[in-house]
């Protein structure tokens, strides 16, 4: 039976990790997406034991990469973070370590700040070393295309076509499809067919229309908003996708709603929208 994982980004500050795990089990989730904050709240052995006790698997560890720091100290800290996340993904038998390239704001103005082509070249040049390290740890990497609005803050890999071309050049690399970032792509289904088994993970949420002219869209329930979640699930089924699904919204998207209720609603909505399609769980 199809199932969905819940990403820990949903947990508000101060919401205990044990409560999050218990609520995920009660909601009927099949696993979790692990965040850096989750890793800061428990040792790896303790987290592994908690997951085993609750029969929850780890569908993702979030997020490594961020290769564009011009500041040497920030770059050094990020390299240490990436190693820590690789080790965590290996220890927790995570299905995928999510990789995000970093935004233009990470670059120093004196080092050609704002050069999109340079940022993309740096991202691609850094990936082989991380892929080699991941192979040593037995970890699968998935690069995540970000909405173009996030070029300055998160990532310069922005379309599934870019991601597929990158995978062509770097065999063994995979892709994470976050619907929030790619729902608008007119070539979405053809790109799913092209990616095939290089598609590592699908992260799902609804997408709200901005409330104000200059506001950004936000994540919402699977049954709300602009994105055709059911249509994307049907397209994935036609493409033979057999990987994991994660519900990914952030705590600030909840606007005071009860976390356990949101999890339960996400699991029920996914079961309804997917029509019981088979996937790994």
Helix content: 40-55%
Q: Which structural category fits the helices and strands? A: alpha/beta
Count the domains: 1
Overall pLDDT level: 93
CATH fold category name: TIM Barrel
Arrangement of strands in the largest sheet: 1-2-3-4-5-6-7-10
Summed up, the helix count is 11
Count the strands? Answer: 10
Percent of residues in beta strands: 15-25%
Distance between the termini: 8 Å
Q: What overall geometry do the principal axes of the alpha carbons give?
A: globular
**Strand and helix order:** EHEHHEHEHEHEHHEEEHEHH
Radius of gyration over all CA atoms, rounded: 18 Å
Provide the CATH superfamily.
Divalent-metal-dependent TIM barrel enzymes
Which stretches are poorly predicted, pLDDT < 50 over at least 5 residues? 277-281
For this entry, give a set of tags:
single chain, two-stranded antiparallel ribbon, disordered C terminus, alpha/beta, 11 helices
Structure description:
The protein has 281 residues and is α/β, with parallel strands linked by helices. It has one domain: Alpha-Beta Barrel (TIM Barrel), CATH 3.20.20. The protein is built from 11 helices and 10 strands. The strands form 2 sheets. The chain has an 8-stranded parallel β-barrel, surrounded by 5 helices. It has a two-stranded antiparallel sheet with strand order 8-9. Helix 5 links the parallel strand 4 and strand 5. The longest helix has 22 residues. It is globular and about 45 Å long. The termini are close together. 42% of the residues are buried.
């Amino acid at each position: 039976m199809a199932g969905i994982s819940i990403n820990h980004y949903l947990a508000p500050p101060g919401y205990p990790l044990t409560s999050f795990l218990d609520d995920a089990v009660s909601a009927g989730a099949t696993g979790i997406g692990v965040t850096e904050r989750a890793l800061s709240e428990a040792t790896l052995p303790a987290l592994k034991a908690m997951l085993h006790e609750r029969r929850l698997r780890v569908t993702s560890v979030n997020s490594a990469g961020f290769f564009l720091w011009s500041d040497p100290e920030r770059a050094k800290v990020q390299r240490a973070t990436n190693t820590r996340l690789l080790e965590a993904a290996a220890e927790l038998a995570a299905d995928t370590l999510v990789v995000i390239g970093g935004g233009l704001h990470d670059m120093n103005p004196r080092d050609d700040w704002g050069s999109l082509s340079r940022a993309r070249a740096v991202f691609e040049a850094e990936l082989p070393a991380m892929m080699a390290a991941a192979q040593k740890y037995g970890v699968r990497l998935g690069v995540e295309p970000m909405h173009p609005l996030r070029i300055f803050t998160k990532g310069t890999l922005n379309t599934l076509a870019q991601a597929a071309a990158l995978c062509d050049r770097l065999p063994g690399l995979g892709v994470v499809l976050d619907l929030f970032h790619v729902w608008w792509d007119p070539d979405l289904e053809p790109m799913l067919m092209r990616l095939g088994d290089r598609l590592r993970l699908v992260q799902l949420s609804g997408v709200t229309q901005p409330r104000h002219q200059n506001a950004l869209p936000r994540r919402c329930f699977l049954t709300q908003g602009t994105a055709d979640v059911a249509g994307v699930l049907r397209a994935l089924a036609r493409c033979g996708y057999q990987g994991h699904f994660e519900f990914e919204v952030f705590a600030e998207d909840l606007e005071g709603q009860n976390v356990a209720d949101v999890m339960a609603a996400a699991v029920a909505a996914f079961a309804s929208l997917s029509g019981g399609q088979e996937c790994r769980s």
